[in-house]
Every structure is written in structure tokens, then in C-alpha cells.
Amino acid sequence: MGALATQTQRYYETHLPHLHANLPDPTAYFLELEARAQEMIQLLTDQIAGPDRPDETYQDKLGRLTAAQHAATEKVMREFLLAPLSDPGETTPQPQVR
Hints:
mainly alpha; disordered C terminus
């Protein structure tokens, strides 16, 4: 399991133990969430970063892309991975990334 899945699982164990206890296969569940989150992070990173700028230096581009990735990761963590489930019968958080 990667960092996103591990962090999310710890969050569920601590803050949503009733949901964590009802997962039939927690490892598979958190691996699936992580895969979906990584896709969302990549899409959101591209949106936030925007197109390359003609006068942009390598360092400027690196900074822009790094900042975009951090912002995207934070948003996906907050709104998808660590968001409480809206329906108690629901087993997977629904993406709210805009």
C-alpha cells in the first residue's frame, strides 16, 4: 500500500472505526481508493498547472508543477479520501473534486 492508502486507512481506523470494521477486505478497499485518488490527482494537477508558458524557465516550470501537484493532492485528500461517506450504506466515498 502506498502513502495515500496508508494515511486513509489510519484515518478510517481512528475517526471512522464503525466503517472500517465493516469493510470486508480493507486492503483491497484502500488500494482501490488510492488508485482512484491518484487518477484524480493527476487530472487536477494538469488543470491547476495549466499550459506551459513560453518564457518560463525550467525552475519556474518545476515550481509551478510541484505547487499544482501539492494543491491537487491536498484537495483530493480533503474532499475524497478523508471525506465522510454521505450514505451510511455507501462503501466508497464519492469524488467531489471540481
